[in-house]
Amino acid sequence: MKRKIALSIAAVLLLVTAIGVTAALRHPARSEVPTFRVESSAFRRQVTAEGTLKAVKATPVSTPNQANRPLKIAWIETDGAVVSKGDVIVRFDPTEFENELLVGNEERATASNRLTKTNTDSSTTRTNLKRDARQAENELESAQRFKFDDAEIFSRYQRIESEVDADLAGDRKRYAEEVLKVRDTLSRTDLDLIAIEDRKAGLRIRNAENGLKSLEIIAPYDGILVLQRDWRGEIPRAGSTQWPGSPLAEIPELAEMKAEVFVLEADAAGLGVDQKATVWLESDAGVKYAGRITSLDKLARPRTRGVPVQYFGVTVSLDRTDVGKMKPGARVRAVLELENLKSAFAIPRQALFEKDGKRLVYRKNNGRFEPVEVAISSSSAGRVVVTRGLISGDELALQDPTKDEEAAEEEKADG
Predict the structure, then answer these.
(1) Taking 60 as the threshold, does the pLDDT of residue 7 lie above it?
(2) What span, in angstroms and rounded, lies between the C-alpha atoms of 340 and 42?
(3) 188 and 208 share a domain?
C-alpha cells in the first residue's frame, strides 16, 4: 500500500514538472533590455585619406613650341633627379631636322638655278621676238614705200605679189608682238612659281633651323625634376614622341608644399573647404603637420584606371614645410576633421530606430520604455547626434523593447 502511494506521488511530481517545463518553453522569461544613459559630450567626425605631396609652386617643362612637328626624345634626366640651373634635362633627336634642312637647301638651290635659267631663256626669247618684230616692221615700211601699184608699169602678177608681201609683213609684225606678250606672261608665271618654290624651301629651312635650336631643354633654376605622367600613367622616356607644347615634367619650388589626398566617396559626406586636417609622412609617422582643406573635386572619380572605386580629390595646404624631409611625390596620410562639437547628445547608432517613417528612441520611464520621436543632425560610424527630443540623464534602450510584446501577441493569436 505504501509503495502504491509513493508511486502515485512520484507520478504527480513528474506531471507537475512536465507542465512547468512546457509553460517555460511556451512563455520564456523576458531578458533584461540593455540601456544607455544620455550625457552631453564632445563629438568629432573624422575621415582618413592618403595621397602624395606636391609643391605649391612649380615651373612646368614642356616640349618647345618653336618646332612645328613632333619631337623624339633622345635622352631625358631620371625622375626625381636633382638638377642645377643651366643643366640639360631633355635632349631631342636631331636627325629629322638635319634631313629637312638638307632637303630645304637643295630645293632652294634648285629654285635658284631654275630662276637663272628662266631669266636667261626669257631674255633670249624676248630679244629674238623683238628682232623679228623690227624686221617685219622694216619689211612693211619697205613694201609700203615701194608699192607696185602702177598698172602701166608693173604687171598684174607684180602688183598682186607686192600686196601679198605687204600683208605678210604686217601679219609677221603683229604675230611677233603677240608672241612677245604671251612669252612675257609665261615668263612672269614661271617666275611666280619659282618664287613660291623658293619660299617653300625657305620655310622648310627656317622650320629645320628652329627645330635644331630646340633640341635641348635647360633647367631654369636649381630643384628636383618631377616627370609628368600621361593619361596611360606612363612617364616620358627615350624614344617616345612628344608634340609641341605637351607637358614633360615640372621643377617644383621646395620651400612650400601641399598634400593632395583622396577620400572615399562613401566617407565624403560633409567634406568642405577650410576644414582642419592633420598630415604625416608615411616615412616619418611620428611628426604631424597641421593644415586646412583649400579645394576639393566637384565629382568623384576613380584613382586607378580600370578600378571602379570612386574618390574625391582633396588639396590640403600645410602650415609649415620641412624642406629636409618633404619631397614632391612622397606618400602621405591625412586625417580630415569634418565636424567637431564641444557639447552634443551623441547616442549609439543601435539606440535609434525608424518606424512608420519616424526616427524613434525608447526612453525608460517608471520601469517601462516609451517611444520618443527625435531629430538628428550628423553621424559617425557608431554614433548619431540628436538635436531634439532628449535631455541629459535619459536612459535609452539599446534594442527594441517591443519585440517580446509583439512576439507574445503573435503567439497568443496563433494559440
Answers:
(1) no
(2) 7
(3) yes
Residue 221 is part of a domain; what is its CATH number?
A: 2.40.50.100
Provide CB contacts within 8 A for 395, sequence distance 6+: 35, 36, 37, 38, 363, 364
How many domains would you assign to the chain? 3
Q: Which residues contact residue 43 at a Cβ distance below 8 angstroms, ignoring those fewer than 6 apart?
A: 339, 340, 341, 344, 346, 378, 380, 383, 385
> Which residue, among 274, 270, 398, has the nearest Cα to 338 in the 3D structure?
270
Write the pLDDT tens digit of every residue in 201-236.
999 999 899 888 889 999 988 888 888 888 777 889
Q: pTM for the complete prediction?
A: 0.53
Beta strands in 64-207 (DSSP E): 71-76, 82-83, 88-92
Q: Are residues 37 and 78 in the same domain?
A: no
Cβ-contact 162, 143 below 8 angstroms: yes
CA dihedral for 66, 72, 75, 80, sign (positive or negative): positive
Q: Domain check: are 108 and 170 in the same one?
A: yes
Q: Which residue pairs, CB below 8 angstroms and at least 24 apart, start in 286-293?
A: 287/322, 287/325, 289/318, 289/319, 289/320, 289/322, 290/318, 290/319, 291/258, 291/259, 291/316, 291/317, 291/318, 291/319, 291/334, 292/316, 292/317, 293/336
Domain limits for position 226: 59-93+215-251
Collapsing DSSP to helix, strand or coil, 77 comes out as coil
Question: Is it the case that residue 378 has pLDDT exceeding 80?
Answer: no
For 285-316, b/e burial (b = at least 16 CB within 10 A) is eeeebebbbeebeeebeeeeeeeeeebbbbbb
3-state secondary structure of 189: helix
231-241 pLDDT, tens digit each? 777 889 999 99
